[in-house]
Amino acid sequence: MTLETFEKYKPAFDYITKNRPMHIxxxxxxxxxxxxxxxxxxxxxxxxxTAFEDNPEFYNYAVEKGWNTKDSIKLxxxxxxxxxxxxxxxxxxxxxxxxVDFIILDGPDYRIxxxxxxxxxxxxxxxxxxxxxxxxxxxxxxxGRIGCQEYYRDLGFNMVTEWDEVKG
Length: 168
What we know:
Layout: H1 10-19, E1 23-27, H2 31-43, E2 48-53, H3 56-64, E3 73-75, E4 77-82, E5 87-91, E6 102-105, E7 123-124, H4 126-134, E8 140-142, H5 146-154
Parallel strand pairs: 1-2, 1-6, 2-3, 5-7, 6-8
Antiparallel strand pairs: 4-5
């Protein structure tokens, strides 16, 4: 796979190309982080990405595959915020991301983090938390994760692209 064939993130890459965010925050780091770095290098305006990955095995795999070329992927813990609603949060300091101006949410693997009824969680609340803590709207894009998209849509947030359609 190459940057040109990595279609999964096309809406995010289009946003980056047009808006040139200086600090991209990605929840769920891996191959996508590598391609974001490659895209930023090709654009040459000085943007950077910080990615948080919660799964140590996948983090190690990403390192072995050479996807962490700029030490952009950081291992982070996940905290279950609401067991009944299935809301999780990546744990990291605000200082690491206080200048973020674009967020990509493509993690965690909700099947690993289960609700009180045993079903997979479905929402990551970090976008909401950062918006509140930093006191400003931060453009974001969510890859798939329809339940998480619905959570933010219900709160009145606007994603940089149209919300994905729920496919039946």
